[in-house]
Amino acid sequence: MPNLLIELFSEEIPARMQRRAAEDLKKLITNGMVDAGLTYAGAAAFSTPRRLTLAVEDVLSESPTVREERKGPRVDAPEKAIEGFLRGALLSKDQLEVRDEKKGQVYFATIEKPGRPAADIIAEVLEHAIRNFPWPKSMRWGSGALRWVRPLHSIICVLSDDMDATVVPVNIDGIESGNQTMGHRFMSSGAPITVSGFDDYAALLKKEHVILDPEERAQMIWQDATNIAFASGLDVVEDAGLLAEASGLVEWPVVLMGEIDQEFLELPPEVLQTSMREHQKFFSVSGPKSGKITRFITVANRETADQGATILAGNQKVLSARLADAKFFWENDLRVAQNDGLTAWTARLENVTFHNKLGSQKDRIDRIIALAGDLTIATSADAGLTQKAAGVAKADLSSEMVYEFPELQGLMGRYYAEAAGLEQEVANACEQHWQPLGPSDDVPTEAVSATVALADKLDTLCGFWAIDEKPTGSKDPFALRRAALGVIRLVLENQIRLPLLKAAVEHMARFANAENASAVASDLLGFFHDRLKVYLRDRGIPHDVIDACVAMDGNDDIALLVKRAEALSEFLASEDGENLVQGFRRANNILTQAEEKDGVEYSFGADVKFAETDEERVLFGALETQGPKIDAAMQAEDFAAAMGAMAALRAPVDAFFEAVQVNSDNEIVRRNRLNLLSQVRNTCARVADLGRIEAA
Amino acid sequence: MTIEKPKSFQEIILRLQNYWAAKGCAVLQPYDMEVGAGTFHPATTLRALGTKPWAAAYVQPSRRPTDGRYGENPNRLQHYYQYQVLIKPSPPDLQELYLGSLAAIGIDMALHDIRFVEDDWESPTLGAWGLGWEVWCDGMEVSQFTYFQQVGGHDCHPVSGELTYGLERLAMYVLGVDHVMDMPFNNPNAPIALKYGDVFKQTEQEYARWNFDVANTEVLLRHFEEAEAECQAILDQEHIDPKTSKRIIMAHPAYDQCIKASHIFNLLDARGVISVTERQAYIGRVRGLAKKCADAFVLTEAGGYTA
For A312, which residue in chain B has the nearest alpha carbon? Predict the structure, then answer.
């Protein structure tokens, strides 16, 4: 069976888009082929800065013939209906078959779709893929209307088997498919390469200095980089993102190592690394023991007669100019921090807008200071230090270094707070109050940092809720989901007992435009509960368990809520728990039916003296002994103990349903039994709203 | 192919002029107004609009008041030069043409590492954007390479290819100079050899002082308003000139006022009298003018209008 080779050759594709684009090409082409009946054995996609390539193995040489049977109108149906059916089936009346059905004689059509040659299908699918390619950003060029990520120059589309290779003809806005491509922009001979299939394509490209597979290029880069560093007794600082990007910037990687000027080695290592990475796409090279960054590695796209000496010298020069800037910022910032402290920077944030409806960064900081002060009651952090930390935590946004490298915010704050002689807790809060930045990021544990982090996130959430800028669908421009998850993780991992509703309502008053504070805060609490469900689901706690706990009082205290949910989840996993919930459900069903039928609520008055059976009496006894135990455990917030006490009801409840017929002919006995079941229901409901637990 | 290395700043400019002239571009002269970048020259901004083919190359002195460093910084200047090429429609071999220009100024492709690194261009003041790259030579950005998609809010049909070279930086690299003021301006063996500093060190100081501390902000604010009003007034005129009875739409005179407003905004910015929130509003006002000028230009003959 034939193999298919497609190459789309263009001007330089942004590195960050290449891999995704190769996968998209694979998906679009193979899905399109399969939809048309053209199956295949395997497919692989590749990318370089100038090309997307797809190789598909063992493609059917034509799609199979398909027979489809269609049921039509009855023979005595109006002529219009029959005509319509014929039009749809592309048949004439004498080609139809008449069959006897229950409702009378009915027309049937058998439509045969003949198979089509692979080349026809591939040409269509390829054209569709090119015209509808999901580039994050695309453009037009010249006088054409075609859109591609950058100008598209040529297309290879070749079907080949052992015998021969044929070009699948495609013409897209004047770009005609063929069997030729170009090698490396600078290192190849410059003559077009003619190919007959994937094997010679990849081999010929390599000869013309193009490594087709991005993984192979990345491996070459990493191998050469670690070797070259090792030879000098040094380590390359790992950076998977940079490695992927570097492999997307070259077709023929050549690794070169250079020195960093002595005068820059005293800069914080993060500054060196960020500057080299962001501006120059250099890897950092550090001493194995000290971890101090002393050299860099750059990846060039070619070999040269001088072994890269000119290239390295140029790169070194650019780096020195960049680091001279960084050093200039660092020294200026240190001078400000040492002379004026960080409060001067905070004051300058008055002129920086946070959000046009939420005021300046300074306004934001003032709110965070106040809120952080309130929160110290819950977090037991030192109030004075916490408010001091909140006041300077974002000061570094005014620094020159953070202006230049926004990704260093927080970290620079810590350096500058230390330089200003502030307490270590305050300095740490400058860095850590931004955390956690994602589900896998660390949560600050020092009381001051945790409190400021909590205040920062709550302020953001309250603010955007107050101005009704909530996340919708996939849109969350202010990262509010991340902020809510941050709050959840902060209170859970630090066991902070904080009634969020009250805190939110009170904080809303600090916004100029907050109306309906309590309604807005309730809505925000619902958002927290949604995020909590996602968070706990990943930890194996199903959503109905959380619902059963959210329905209880005190549901704005996330730490308490989770404690309850964990205990309930564990209880439900036990045999006692599972059975008790079944018993509860049965009791609940019987009660609900009876209550509906009788139009009354059976809620009190059960009396052991009307009990007729031992099973009833045992259940009365169990409720009497376990009730107070459950209450006491609940009082102490010991949910596990409460569930344990509840588990003791399981046997009597089971025995009751086994032996006792609730609907007695004696109305007094019946009512007494219903009231007894009501006690069971109420006792269970003290722990969680078990009615929300879904049947397994 | 090894080409002899140029010896001076001006030789690099002359070689670029000759190269692009040989490739068929009209070699234009700088626009006679203060602009922030070569893109502001009407030969780029306006000519990128409409359907008529165009090919132009020129040097454009550019001013960025906030970048002034009193001539002390090795590569920051408030007044510098850009070399600008605009070809419409963008030819299929524009990348090769561009690489040829680097070879022409003495960059040996066999020794250097040239890379096209993603960089999308956007000018909020011109309401313009395009996709392309910054071109790296051994890790240094030497040019901006852009396919214009929109200018003044209008989609570009056909698309222009724009090349912008930062001349001082490129020349410093080619000539191996570390401080811009040390760069030979003319031939270093000339009887009167001049360095870049001999020509511009003093003016950098003078303008830095004026830009940062002396420029009269009240006057500037008034000039901004006046330029804005004049631009609008020009565009409000009837298309038919009552004196000659000819159809004369004054897109260029109106655009001059837009350029003026843009530069005044830059000066006010350097004087530090524009707050962060006001900044956006000013940029929006200049963009409003640029859009109206673009609207007017596409109604002119040069903009592709046919009666």
Answer: B138
Asked whether the beta carbons of residue A310 and residue B117 sit closer than 8 angstroms, the reply is no
CA dihedral sign of residues B297, B301, B306, B307: positive
How far is it, in rounded angstroms, from Cα A357 to Cα A469?
10
CB A247 within 8 A of CB A272: no
Query: Buried (b) or exposed (e) across A417-451, using 16+ Cβ within 10 A?
Result: bbbbebbebbbbbbbbbbbbeeeeeebbebbbbbb
Q: DSSP code of B148?
A: E
Q: Which of B5, B134, B112 is nearest to A312 (CA)?
A: B112
Cα A598 to Cα A593: distance, rounded to the nearest angstrom: 9
Distance (Å) from the alpha carbon of A308 to chain B's nearest alpha carbon? 7
Flag whether residue B238 sits within 8 Å of chain A, measured between CB atoms: no
Rounded alpha-carbon distances, angstroms, from residue A346 to A21, A280, A395: 44, 31, 5
Q: Which residues pair with A139 in a beta bridge?
A: A148
pLDDT band at B277 (very low <50, low <70, confident <90, very high): low
Q: What is the DSSP letter of B4?
A: P
Distance of CA B172 to the CA centre of its chain: 19
- In DSSP terms, A178 is beta-bridged to A156
Query: CB A153 to CB B161 under 8 A?
Result: no
Q: Please report which helix (H) or strand (E) contains residue B169, including its range.
A: helix B167-175
Residue A315 at interface with chain B, using a CB cutoff of 8 Å: yes
Q: Which residues of A are less than 8 Å from B156 in CB distance? A: 140
**Residues of chain A contacting residue B128, judged by C-beta atoms under 8 Å apart:** none
Interatomic CA distance for residues B117 and B134, integer angstroms: 5
Predicted confidence (pLDDT) per residue in A313-370, tens digit? 999 999 988 898 889 889 989 999 999 889 889 888 887 778 878 888 899 999 999 9
Q: Give CA–CA dist B281/B297, Å, rounded.
A: 24
Q: Check residue B180 and give its pLDDT.
A: 95
DSSP for residue A39:
-
pLDDT digits (tens, 9 = 90+) for B209-229: 999 899 999 999 999 999 999
CA–CA separation, A608 and A672 (whole Å): 8
Chain A CB within 8 Å of residue B14 CB: no
Contact B158 A300 (CB under 8 A): no
Residues of chain B with C-beta less than 8 angstroms from the C-beta of A184: none
How far is Cα A272 from Cα B98, in angstroms, rounded to an integer? 33
The predicted complex's ipTM stands at 0.94
CA–CA separation, B263 and B255 (whole Å): 12
Tokens of A26: 């694979």
pLDDT at A123: 97
pTM for the model = 0.79
Query: Can you state the angle between helices A411-419 and A424-432, rounded to 10 degrees?
Result: 160
Q: Are strands A293-300 and A283-286 parallel, antiparallel or unpaired?
A: antiparallel
Three-state DSSP state, A133: coil
| Residues A395 and A346: beta-carbon distance below 8 Å | yes
Check whether the bond before B61 is cis (ω within 30° of 0). Answer: no
Q: Distance (Å, rounded) from C-alpha A446 to C-alpha A426?
A: 10
Mark yes or no for CB contact B89/A142 under 8 Å. yes
Judge: A314–B112 Cβ closer than 8 Å, yes or no: yes
Does residue B191 have a cis peptide bond before it, meaning omega lies within 30 degrees of 0?
no
Give the chain A residue whose CA is nearest to the CA of B53: A143
DSSP output for A219-282 = HHHHHHHHHHHHHTT-EEPP-HHHHHHHHTS-SS-EEEEEEPPGGGTTS-HHHHHHHIIIII-P
Residue A364 CA to residue A357 CA, distance in Å, equals 11
Token pair belonging to A90: 């592309």
